[in-house]
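Protocol step 4 of 5: obtain the predicted structure for the target chain.
Materials: sequence only (see below). No template structures provided, no constraints applied. The aim of this step is simply to have a reference model before the mutagenesis design in step 5. Sequence pasted as it appears in the construct record:
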Amino acid sequence: MIAIKEIVVATDFGEPASVALTYGRNFARAFSAGLHVVHVVNDLATSAPVSEIPMDLTKVQSQLDAEAKTSLDALITDDDLRTLKVKKTLLTSATPARAILDYAAKVHADVIIVGTHGRGGLAEFFLGSVAQKIVRSAPCPVLTVRTHEREFVAPDALTVVAGTKAE
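Step 4 output (structure tokens):
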């Protein structure tokens, strides 16, 4: 039997991440698991050459963090708060995949769910892929999801809530 107690869903607030969160919610309900919704804000202090940026990075970083927190808060619905053991986590790092992997290890995640844009070829080579890096190094299984693919969890599917089916 599969025992899933902790689920990490990584989000960049894009459409594939939204699909990943749908899967995360459904898995959390099915397994009565904790749901960790994680977003990584770029750490400007370590990712940009300070000598090239003549502004106060602290203010810009604070603004990025505040915007990300607002977006993260908007993802979690009142229903999520009522029916799921959900935790929102905002991380700051120049390496999002590593930050997500470290967080997953820290909370003893049983599965990581991440959306992928499905880029290939040169786009993937130049841009890299957070999902790909997570898959390569994860301490647990990883479910990658894309939008408009064959999905086995529909966004408006019947959901089991408190032992009864609701439409």
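Step 4 remarks: Confidence is low (pLDDT under 50) at residues 122-127, 156-167. The first strand starts at residue 6 and ends at 10.
Proceed to step 5.
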